[in-house]
Amino acid sequence: MSHGVMGEKSLPDLPATSWAVLGILSFEADLSGYDVKRWADQSLAFFYWAPSQSQIYTELRRLERLELATSRVEQTHAAKSRRVYRVTSQGQDAIRGWADELEPDPMVLKNSHILRVWAAHNGDMERLHGELRTYRDAALERAAKAAAHARGAERDASWRFSGIALEWSERFYLDEAARIDWLLDRLQQEQ
Amino acid sequence: MSHGVMGEKSLPDLPATSWAVLGILSFEADLSGYDVKRWADQSLAFFYWAPSQSQIYTELRRLERLELATSRVEQTHAAKSRRVYRVTSQGQDAIRGWADELEPDPMVLKNSHILRVWAAHNGDMERLHGELRTYRDAALERAAKAAAHARGAERDASWRFSGIALEWSERFYLDEAARIDWLLDRLQQEQ
DNA sequence: GGGAGCATGTAACGGGTTACATGATTGG
DNA sequence: CCAATCATGTAACCCGTTACATGCTCCC
User: Fold this and answer.
1) Are residues B148 and B185 both part of a single domain?
2) What is the pLDDT of residues A32-89, one digit of tens each?
3) What CA–CA distance (Å, rounded) separates A12 from A66?
4) What does DSSP assign to residue A11?
5) What is the residue range of B63's domain?
6) What does the alpha-carbon distance between residue B129 and residue B5 come to, in Å, rounded to a whole number?
7) B100 contacts on A by Cβ (under 8 Å)
8) Please, which residues bridge with residue A83 across strands?
9) Stated in angstroms, how far is B109 CA from D19 C1'?
10) Do residues B87 and B117 share a domain?
11) Which residue of B has its CA nearest to A187?
12) A-interface mutation test, from B105, B115, B185, most A Cβ less than 10 A away
């Protein structure tokens, strides 16, 4: 046998969403798909992205199939139950490997507002300005939301880093808003 | 007939890449797929994203099928030719509609470096710091590149807005680098 | 002669989305 | 009682990627 030496742990090759979901599970045990979705919307969404609900259930099933997570059915009510997941020890190993051995994939930015500026010779300037102002306001709101979630994470020591990521997000959206203000000025200059 | 009134122009429902490629064609006539790819890599890639080469050829064929662009074969050499594209008047209308009537789709950010910070309880801190420093340096390089391309766009009046988008990009990557420096400090604090 | 750049295309694949479907529970 | 929330899942679809294939031309 050319490989597969004892003790050699090869990381499973998972899509990004899978790692993200596994990451969420690394914070807390016994989360349902629904829980995972809420977590994703309230933290991941600010600096990464929020997978769709159906995708999350798919990833959860994949993680279980690969034995990186296990699930059990929790009877919440007489006629109602939910399936909750937790990482296995293999899952723990995998996530450590992901953090320490896998190259982070390159940052992705898709800012369609800047795309509009780039192609501004095709459209109306007034309108573009209005659109950019709206976008700036949305960024400020987003910053406020990130800040609120960051404060929420302060309470528990285990969300320490999650909170820092959210503080980073607040700054990101604040900077973005400032950059749009600069852009508005810059466009003004250009008659 | 319930719709289709004369003069009523309904925008074709195109995927994002299609609009981006059409946008590139709006700058200059007679671009080959290869040209489009280079343009995308040197401007779009900084604030939007660079579609793969094969995708560009696909989009170009789609645009022609929808009569938003036409192509002709240009004989460059005895035994070599290339197919070059240009927007039609319908294409011009469509791109104006895109700029002025279509909601820009929400900004997408996928920063896997911050994802690592968020999940930092699973990995080694030293390593994370090193990774972040590398990322900061890459951001600075990216800023420099954007600035260089922005200067390149100054020459021609028709790339005016394209140049502004690149100036914005320079700022983006500069801000990003500064934010990572802040993050490095912030993580230090947290022992 | 050979490597870099020009130039275009096909095929397989899959990640992820939207839309749809279903039904229980809780609180006003 | 009704809306919102909890909770899970299926099916269709396609965008976009990677990998592969091909061959010319230019310049050292």
Assistant:
1) yes
2) 999 999 999 999 999 999 999 999 999 999 999 999 999 999 887 777 889 999 999 9
3) 9
4) P
5) 5-101
6) 61
7) 123-124, 127
8) A73
9) 28
10) no
11) B164
12) B115
